[in-house]
Amino acid sequence: PSPCRLAMCVGKCSRIVGPCLLALGMLSVAANILLLLPGGTSKYLVEGHISKHAKAMPGIWGGGIAVLLAATHITAVGWRCAGCSDCGTRRNAFISAVLSKLALLGAAACFVLSGVGLTNGPLCFYNASEYGHGHGTLWGYPFLDASGQEPDTRTENYLHDRRTWSICLEPAGVVAWNVVLFSLLLLVSATEMVLASLQILNGCLGCLCGFCEGK
Prior knowledge:
With 215 residues, the protein is mainly alpha-helical. It contains seven helices and three strands; from the N terminus they run αααααββαβα. Strands 2-1-3 form a three-stranded antiparallel beta sheet, with no helix packed on it.
């Protein structure tokens, strides 16, 4: 394709990828904030009874801030340079590629930590005697400590057998809360990785021909 046509494709791609990453970044932040507020209350956050992977906030700094930095730049440059003849977009394309690499790393970190959070299950107040770990109730990770099972088996058991979710007494409905939100973070961060990778390629092409469509 001609340089002009290639520049047009690069610019259009940026104006699609940028807003998509903005929306996904904000969704990631919202999902992580909700993970810190099981049941929609701040009580357990104040008490410190929140899953360590939720408190790590991968959806805020990884799938959120890192992605939003890149998305804001990509969107601004993509629209500001629509139809112009010369707006210094080779430099901006290079910056967008660098920021997209940062977004890719952040989304990947969010994906890994969310996967571990989903595998381990939530921190909750549960009846330890049901798992043979003593008597009475305590705060802990009942599915992580489940009778010495292998991690894959343990995860499969608790994710597919909802009858086990009732082991958690507090916060109410915390297992479903964690499963839904960590699964959402996994889906969002995976999509962010795909889009960030696409924008890295797009940014490299932009370094060669710019984003501008008018010649």
